Amino acid sequence: MRPEGKIASLGIALPEPPAAVGAYVTHVRTGDLVTTSGQLPWVNKVMQYPGRLGAEVTAEEGYQAARICCLNALAQLKAELGSLDRVRRIVRLEGYVHCTLEFRDHPKVLDGASDLLVEIFGEQGKHVRIALGIYAMPLNSPVQLVVWAEVGE
Amino acid sequence: MRPEGKIASLGIALPEPPAAVGAYVTHVRTGDLVTTSGQLPWVNKVMQYPGRLGAEVTAEEGYQAARICCLNALAQLKAELGSLDRVRRIVRLEGYVHCTLEFRDHPKVLDGASDLLVEIFGEQGKHVRIALGIYAMPLNSPVQLVVWAEVGE
Amino acid sequence: MRPEGKIASLGIALPEPPAAVGAYVTHVRTGDLVTTSGQLPWVNKVMQYPGRLGAEVTAEEGYQAARICCLNALAQLKAELGSLDRVRRIVRLEGYVHCTLEFRDHPKVLDGASDLLVEIFGEQGKHVRIALGIYAMPLNSPVQLVVWAEVGE
Fold it and tell me: What is the pTM of this model?
């Protein structure tokens, strides 16, 4: 099953791609690569789970926040490409986790995005990843994600 | 008007591209992409506005620091390409802001770079962006920026 | 001398490429670029020098940690390509240093990776670099590195 069919069969409705919060754009294509701006966990313009992992936000909530960021990133890719069926593979996920000094479960949080990518794209959804614990995040977001994808056709 | 003409008409004098502060180079081309090392706000080898946003550095000073970093990044691109007229588009801006825990105005700071890119390159200056609040910055710099550009011809 | 011969002449034994610590892969190729996931200083599944630069970890230990991360990154590139002789050039090093607020010697730490890349690849080992001081690192790692390389042939 291709990505758009998979999304439908999972009952996922992609959101409208969130707008930029500054003087930039939310997605760009260069050659066969598409990449997004840093995605935050917006749902209908309300940030989900604001705060820091290890303090106001639990690891399970962080997992959900990462999943929401990833849905927004996929909406950006779709806005660039018209259809996610044009994605040949997901290349890279940059995962920035807003957290306390003692927090160590960045990988569990970011699996909220990585798991979704593999659910939708299968083997082609597997990507390299960086995971960093960030001190201060724009708008007090719990997570910020960037997705890089390779385009086919 | 093309980028070099635009820079002249704006009365901007690009600086000498700053040297690396370690065992690396300041710009590289791979395929049709050119990318820079992390750029700091050097003016004539003096760092401007050292310190943290939210503490020693105001948001307006941060905006100016981001603009200076971006001028240095453009100097690196020009050193790679000979002329900024060879830039087909600006692709990505990585914006790292040295700040306190409570600081939230990362987007306003980084607009100092993004606004400059759009002034010079117009529609082709629009880029994706990440904005992170960084705990400890090399040399106590207030901002560090990376620019990715796509080359034409 | 080509990279594999150089590695042998330096008496370096590349490790097994470390496994991912989450739902992702450790290396990917897109077009002529290969990039790795964030590499940590594992030696035989034991993290070397855990903690923060400026506190539990000295700058010299950080240099060694960065060198170990880089060896692991090279093992990932070799797993993707079969031989490091297929690397046309090293493109970019992302250097994330786990540190205290006052720590400033990020460049010295990351030279542990950059020096190794130039030892092995010579002029083709020179790369652009970002250097950031990170507040909280997965698994309390002192350093996390990403290497981007361009593939020849």
Answer: 0.96
